[in-house]
Amino acid sequence: MRKTLIYAHRGASRLAPENTMAAYQLASESGADGLEIDVQLTKDNVPVLIHDENVRRTTNGTGFVQDYTCEQIKKLDAGSWFSTKFSDCSIVTLEEFLCWFKTLNMVLNVELKTNVIEYKGIEKMVLAALEKHEVLDRTVISSFNLSSITKVHELNENVRTAFLTSTSRQNLPKFAQKHGSTDLHVKYRLLDRKLVKKCHKEKMPLRIYTINRPNYMAKCFRLGCDGIFTDVPHEALSYREKIQNVKPDNL
Fold it and tell me: What is the CATH number of domain 5-243?
């Protein structure tokens, strides 16, 4: 059976505030295979880890990420919304994260949050940071924005890129490849045997988001998906171990 890698979605985000070092440290300690981070740019062009374009949901601030300097955004409380015991959590810069991550034996998915705001130059900045810390060979760069995928591919054709989508197309793997994508990340409802077969035929890694239910995890494992993104990596690891002892489905 093909081993399905488990990526901690925004870290172990059911146990700690998403996209914070607390969530990533817990995910690492759980034994997850990989981590997933979301990257946006501050007003002074510093890549930072946060999912939403607006800071209001996951911090005590208001307004858009792009309107804060790095110094200003670092002062926000990024943990109390989740639990008061995380009140010391702050927004993490990509540089801070990579200084920590590069010492680990894990893989990484970097999602460029350019589908709402197209941050100018973010692709080049993120690539430079990944190269600096020598983690490109174990990183996939993903985005819902095909323009970002194309830009990354043009900047470095050896980097793995993944088109993120929740929309069905007639031949999704071929469509993604035309835009420079080497991998494919899709919403769970798009997953079926036909898509898995097409991806395997094209030698295109297929990863599924966001998988938190045991029955969904089981389907991904049995169909031989290359990875899942989950908020509960500790639970996914336990289910994967059980499923791996069961005879796989024939594709």
Answer: 3.20.20.190
